[in-house]
Amino acid sequence: MVEAVSSPEVVRLAGVTKAFNVGTPIENEVLHGIDLQLARGEFAAVVGPSGSGKSTLLNLIGLLDRPTQGRLAVTGQETTELDDAHLTALRGHAIGFVFQYHHLIGCFTAAENVMMPLVAAAGRPRPGMRERAEQLLASVGLAHLAERRADQLSGGQQQRVAVARSLAMQPALLLADEPTGNLDTKSAEDVFALLRQVNREHGTSVLFVTHNAALAARCDRTIEVVDGRVR
Ligand SMILES: Nc1ncnc2c1ncn2[C@@H]1O[C@H](COP(=O)(O)OP(=O)(O)OP(=O)(O)O)[C@@H](O)[C@H]1O
C-alpha cells in the first residue's frame, strides 16, 4: 500500500525529461528538464501550441507513463522507483481524470458509471456505493438523471457525469485534458464552472489543459508549455 506523505505540494517535478522511441536507436525527446510544482488547492491552466508536450506532461503527472529522467512526486510520494502495482494504487487514490472524450460506458446508467472507480477499488459492489454515486451526481446537478443510460445524455451532461466519476475516490488532484474541447460554448462554460466549484468546495488541485484562452485566463495560474519546456 502506498502511503501519501503529507506535503504542501500535490505535484513536484524536478528535471523531468520524456523521450519516445521512434525506431531503434532513434529517440525523440519531447519534454526537456521540466521543473514544476503545483500547490494543494491550486487551479492551473496548461496552455501551449499543438504538439508542444501538454498531454505528454499530463500523462506523466497522472502516472499513466513514466519519465525518462528526473523526479516526480505526487501528493508527496516519490514515484520514480515505484513498481507498476504501487503506481496504479497511488493513481487510483490520488488522481481523478477528465478527458476530452468522456469514456463513459454507454449502456450503463449515469450512476453505474460513477460507481465504477469505487467498485474497481473494492473489487466488487458494496453497500453505500450507489448512494455515494447519487450524491456525486447531485453535486454536478444531475440527480434527476442518475438512472438514464449514458448514451442517452447530451455531450455536456456526459462530461458532468465524467466529472462526478473522477471525484468518486476524493482525489487530491484532478487532471483535465481539454475537457471542454468537444463542447458548445454554454456546455463548456458549465463544465468549467463545475471544475471551479470542485476546486473551491473540496480544495482539489486542478490541472486543466485547454486551447481556450478565455477559460485559461480565469484560472489562478497559467503554465505555458512551449517546445517541451515550461515557461
Ligand atoms: N507515444 C508517443 N510516441 C512517439 N511520440 C509521441 C508519443 N506521444 C506523443 N508524442 C509526440 O510528442 C509531441 C508532443 O505531443 P503531445 O500530445 O504531448 O502535445 P500537445 O501539446 O498535447 O498537443 P495538442 O495540443 O495537439 O494535443 C508530439 O510531437 C507527439 O508526436
TrEMBL record:
GO MF: ATP binding
Record keywords, A-Z: ATP-binding, Cell membrane, Membrane, Nucleotide-binding, Transport
PROSITE patterns: ABC_TRANSPORTER_1, ABC_TRANSPORTER_2
Domain ABC transporter, first and last residues per copy: 11-231
Keyword Phosphoprotein among record annotations: no
InterPro entries named in the record: AAA+_ATPase, ABC_transporter-like_ATP-bd, ABC_transporter-like_CS, ABC_transpr_LolD-like, MacB-like_ATP-bd, P-loop_NTPase
Protein name per UniProt: ABC transporter ATP-binding protein
Protein species of origin: Roseateles paludis
